[in-house]
Specification:
The chain is an alpha+beta fold and 183 residues long. It has one domain. Helices cover 32% and strands 25% of the residues. The strands form 2 sheets. A 7-stranded antiparallel β-sheet has the order 1-5-6-7-8-9-10. A 3-stranded antiparallel β-sheet has the order 2-3-4, with no helix packed on it. Strand 8 and strand 9 form a beta hairpin. The protein is globular, with a radius of gyration of 17 Å. Keywords: Signal.
Amino acid sequence: MKKTTAAFILFFMTTILFAQEKYDDKDNLFYATLADAQNHNPIPGLYSKTEFDPYDEFDITYANGETKKNVKCKSKEWPSEYFTNRGMLIRVIEGKAYVCLSLGRMNFYSAFHDGKKFTQEGNTGALKKWDPKYFESLLQQHDLLLRYQMEKPHREISDTVSGYGSKIMGWQVKFMMLLNEKL
């Protein structure tokens, strides 16, 4: 299960880091469960529009061709907890959309609308703002802190702001996945 989840998350991370592709709305699918998403078993005939929305609202198209515009993630019309958008796995928690960066005993998310990072213990723990000190203490407990510090990306003169941000995000996700293997 850990290897499957790690491979699944790695697939979505590469999509996030190299998201220069165009996506068809029909690739933005809904899943009844995380297992369904991992096995690419979507809810039939249901997809969302590929658009960035700062208010956690998306257009949903149903199998009969009907489209509902600006459906809020927290509304009763929202079809499921997990969906994909632009190749990223998104999870709806308390009515807000979060990009799944690493899933396991410790989940790592980025808010869809503003990119702020969050963690959650398992799928039922409280969602908490990213705390680098807490993360480093967990790494220390599992003998990963020194490696984490040694592998921190260095800013190159050729790095753009977003390019360096992607390096940092990739580094943090890598170590969250390593941590999940040890938990």
